[in-house]
Amino acid sequence: MKKAISGANFEIPQEVSQVTTTLKGRGFEAYLIGGCVRDLFLGKKPKDWDVTTNAIPEKIIEAFDKTFYENNFGTVGVVNEVTTDETLKVIEVTPYRTESGYTDKRRPDSVSFSKHLEDDLKRRDFTINAIAYDCEESRTVDLYGGLTDLSKGLIRAVGNARERFAEDALRTLRAVRFHAEHGFEIEEATKKAIIEEAHGLASISKERIRDEFIKIIQSERPSEGLQLCRELGLLKYMLPDLEKGIGVEQGGAHTFDVWTHLLKTLEHSANKNMPLHVRLAALFHDIGKPDTRRGSAGDSATTGKKDYTFYGHEVVGARMTSKILKDLKFPRELAEKVVKLVRWHMFFSDTEQITNSAVRRMVANVGKDNVWDLMEVRACDRIGTGRPKESPYRLRKYHSMIEEVMRDPISVGMLKINGAKLMEVLKEAPGPRIGYILHALLEEVLEDPTKNTEESLEKMAQRLATLDTAELKKLGDAGKDKKEEEDEKVLSEIRKKHWVQ
Ligand code: ATP
Ligand code: MG
Hints:
Layout: H1 14-25, E1 30-32, H2 35-42, E2 50-53, H3 57-63, E3 67-68, E4 76-79, E5 90-95, E6 97-100, E7 110-113, H4 117-122, E8 132-134, E9 139-141, H5 146-152, E10 154-155, H6 161-167, H7 170-182, E11 185-186, H8 188-197, H9 206-218, H10 222-231, H11 235-238, H12 240-243, H13 258-271, H14 276-284, H15 289-292, E12 294-296, H16 299-303, E13 307-309, H17 313-327, H18 332-343, H19 356-366, H20 371-385, H21 392-406, H22 419-426, H23 432-447, H24 454-464, H25 469-497
Parallel strand pairs: 2-5, 10-11
Antiparallel strand pairs: 1-2, 3-4, 4-5, 6-7, 8-9, 12-13
Helix pairs in contact: 6-8, 7-9, 7-10, 10-13, 13-14, 13-20, 14-18, 14-20, 17-18, 19-21, 21-25, 23-24, 23-25
Bound molecules: adenosine-5'-triphosphate (ATP) and magnesium ion.
The site of magnesium ion has 4 residues, from loops.
């Protein structure tokens, strides 16, 4: 994909230029570098700003009021406490670095600081990430043809591709990530080297793989990214279980194999700009299918169709999803949400056939907090199957039913006083009179919600307790009628809101 490159005269936020100007004022060099320069040339808003300099960490710390320094790689965070823009709160300043040795294939054994910008550019992954930009002079230092590659939309390794991937195999995944984020192609020699060095991913830490995986999933083209991972032989080091779905036909109404269906479902969730957990659930919802397929390919002889069943695939899939996310060290809370969505994605939603209690069960299973996400996964699943969207009426009806069963029912439970307290205050024995009093109180509160305080309820109860049982029953029954009437009103409002009956 070709990209338009803007001119090199950018408006740099003052919070950033203040950092480079300060360093220069102390006699150092300072350049913007990496993703922010790439994004400036692409006309995108940088997600964060990185500065590279010939100052060593101590000198950087000295130059600013508030900094933090907490890694082994020389990076100093320069803190801006005034700005409200998240991307400007911390500007990362790193001395020019050279790296040596990658014995564990994870992180450089040691980093040493250098006086020369060239050394720093040489250690960077791709040419498009190795452009330095001097904001005061609007000047670029582009030793590897990064600007040309940017204009062509090409991801090309800096230096000898094979050596660079052998040094740090995470770069193979990063190449795919930049493809997914920017739609760039990977240059041929770089691609070949990725395939040759993919095996190095086996010894990369799960946390680093997870971070790139998340960026691929959150990008505009997550499915293309995963497809590319498969082509380049990276997928088996990241999501081996997903590969099992390749070529697994589903028969029946399904045109796609499991793998393609999952990618299409994910793609739809990205098109709808869904959050990470919904995208992950979309990707994994049928991951249990390959292991649960029972087939009667025999039917194909008579009907021309293959029929398969996948009983329990959502249970198996939930277990697999849980393991995948645990292996990749996802935070527990996020993983639990995704697992729930996968576990309960098989719910029956034909509004002409289901009852409220089926909907209530669905809500109880997946949890109130996850219901609407589950509906999103369902919508993506349909599109990913090649089925049309749910008919608008049925969808509205189902949404209405969910809201109806989730509403807080009108009941004596809403009162700021309960039966036990009433018996204590009124010195009444347990029996129907307490129920009548509660319902009579509910009627009062429905008429005038300001009466729902312990004090006023107690006073009213004391008056009611003087009545004989027959009179009290009449009031209690009236309260029950009123409760039903009000409940109907709430229901009819929910239905009106969804334009259904
Ligand atoms: P983003 O906009 O998503 O932050 P980025 O290119 O800034 O993208 P980062 O992971 O923030 O990506 O890395 C910042 C820069 O550091 C990169 O642009 C690249 O120059 C360099 N870099 C990061 N990781 C590596 C690596 N594994 N090998 C070599 N250089 C790297
Ligand atoms: Mg960055």
